[in-house]
Amino acid sequence: MDTLKAMQVFVAVVDAGSQTAAADTLGLSRPVVSRYIAELEGWTGARLLHRTTRKLSVTPAGSETLQRCRAVLALTTDMQSAVAVPETMPQGLLRITVSTSFGQMQLAAALADFVKRYPAVSVDLVLLDRAVNLVEERIDLAVRISHELDPNLTARRLTVCRSMVCAAPDYLRAHPPIRRMEDLGLHNCLTHSYYGKTLWNFALDGQPSSVAVGGNLSANESTSLLQAAVAGVGVVLLPTFMAAPLVQTGQLVALLPAVQQRDLGIYAVYASRKNMSAALRAMLDFLAERFPPEPPWDQPGV
Fold this sequence. Notes:
- By secondary structure, this protein is α/β, with parallel strands linked by helices.
- The protein has nine helices and 15 strands.
- It has three domains: 3-83, Arc Repressor Mutant, subunit A; 92-160 and 264-298, Periplasmic binding protein-like II (D-Maltodextrin-Binding Protein, domain 2, 3-Layer(aba) Sandwich), CATH 3.40.190.10; 163-260, D-Maltodextrin-Binding Protein, domain 2.
- It is rod-shaped and about 110 Å long.
- The mean pLDDT is 88.
């Protein structure tokens, strides 16, 4: 039995004064109305209406049931109104996680523009240099840089993450030139604590290659390495979304253009497409617009 529908029919019968009038109001046949009343009486275990050929009245049990049916139907209406937000009006809270470096260098500015466009949406940005469990940590969206994603998650590819070797002009003037990949072994290389701390991997003429590196500064977060490189401390391997703007301004110099690291994908990752909120859908579309397949930071002059 559709209990809510049966409650609606019962209230309509009482308000209209007859099953025939209620049937006309609800667009149902009289037998269907009678069936709903009978099913509701069976569900409550009590007779709700006195029926005669000339008059319909509510029993004491029906009077008690009527009050509660009205309350349930009113609550249902309120609930529908609360969540039935037009798709053109995203609202609510989005919790988003991203690595510290991409969050600070790229995503924070993008989210500032997003909340200007959608002021009814609130964003809680969580900067973490680790993968999180979206469900357990109540995360709506994760922006991840990877070449391998959890197959149980849903992802939308945004753009590509490339890397470059670079150093400040002051450092390069004071040290031997870097013309080949092997020259890096003679330099103070600033390394990430978790990725490439002792070995940098490249592709040269399409073939994988690597070089041992070391230096007097490492960090578990790339922004610190960027600042040290700009200060002239050493040579650094950084994502182009961090380094390219400073290369364009001359604060850093790109090195070894013939060698490349493996490109990684930048993805918007979320738990499921089912019951996606308007706010999350708007965020996904916005990020795809903001971070196209060819990233703006890799385009000269942009």
